[in-house]
Amino acid sequence: MASKNITIALFLTINLVFFGFTMAQAPGPQAPICPRSSTQVQACVNRLTSIVGLNVLPLTQCCSLVAGLAPSVASVCICNALKLSVLDILGITVTLGQVLGSCGVSPPAGFICA
Questions:
Q1: 92: left (phi over 0), alpha (psi -120 to 50) or beta
Q2: In angstroms, what CA-CA distances link 43 with 6, 28, 76, 95?
Q3: What is the residue range of the signal peptide feature (predicted)?
Q4: Could you give the 3-state DSSP secondary structure of residue 5?
Q5: CB-side exposure of 23: number of CA atoms within 13 Å?
């Protein structure tokens, strides 16, 4: 009787271990976030709001915001700046590609600033 209980306990233990391994899954990919501070993003927003009309000024604040970042992370930072700008509210279209292109960064394929 004792050996039967040990066998059942061993069988259940092995099943629990294997069941735990088969149910473990790797976490899904995390969406990139902008590692820059809000003051740096605000400087880029201020520069974007001065682009109204034909008065296109250099986007040095935006380019310094994305300097050294991967294209996907840089796209997120500029997208956040575009969302915060008054241009979005006024309906003036400044595309992500225009801003990143002026900084020498190409947005990743399929990236949508939503």
A1: beta
A2: 69, 33, 16, 18
A3: 1-24
A4: helix
A5: 6
The answer for residues whose C-beta is within 8 angstroms of residue 13's C-beta and 6 or more apart is none
Q: Give, as one character, the DSSP assignment of residue 90.
A: H
Q: Which of 23-32, 58-67, 81-90 has the least mean pLDDT?
A: 81-90
Mean pLDDT score of the chain: 75
Give CA–CA dist 33/15, Å, rounded. 40
Residue with tokens 């986007």: 59
pLDDT greater than 70 at residue 43: yes
Q: Diameter of the chain by CA atoms?
A: 91
State the average pLDDT over residues 11-39: 77
Between the alpha carbon of residue 26 and those of residues 10, 12, 29, 58, the distances in Å are: 28, 25, 9, 43
Residue 89's pLDDT is what? 57
Cα–Cα distance for residue pair 30/49, rounded to 1 Å: 31
